[in-house]
Amino acid sequence: MSDRSQTRKAPGELLLSLRGISKNFGAVSALTDIDLDIHAGEVVALVGDNGAGKSTLVKVLAGVHQASSGSIEFQGKPVTMASPAAALQLGIATVFQDLALCENLDVVANIFLGQELNPLRLDEVAMEVRAWTLLNELAARIPSVREPIASLSGGQRQTVAIARSLLLNPKIIMLDEPTAALGVAQTAEVLNLVERVRDKGLGVIMISHNMEDVRAVADRIVVLRLGRNNGVFTPDASNQELVGAITGATDNAVSRRADRLREAAGEAI
Amino acid sequence: MSQQLDRADARVSHATGLSGTIKAFLDRVKSGDLGSLPVVVGLAIIWTVFTVLNPIFLSPNNLVNLLFDCSTTGVIALGIVCVLMLGEIDLSVGSMSGVGSAMIGVLWVNQGVPLPVAIGTAVALGALIGAVYATLRNRLGMPSFVSTLSGLLALLGLQLYMLGATGSINLPYGSKMVEFGQLMILPAWMSYTLALIPGIVMLVVGRSTNARRRAANLSAGSSTGLILKAVFTTIALLAIVFYLSLGRGVPWMFALFVALVLAMNYALTRTQWGRSMKAVGGNAEAARRAGINVRGIYISAFMLCSALAALGGVLSAARLASSSQQAGTGDVNLNAIAAAVIGGTSLFGGRGTAFSALLGIIVIQSIANGLTLLNLNSSLRYMITGAVLAIAVIVDSLARQSRASHGRG
Question: How many angstroms away from the CA of B401 is the closest CA of chain A?
Answer without folding.
Answer: 12
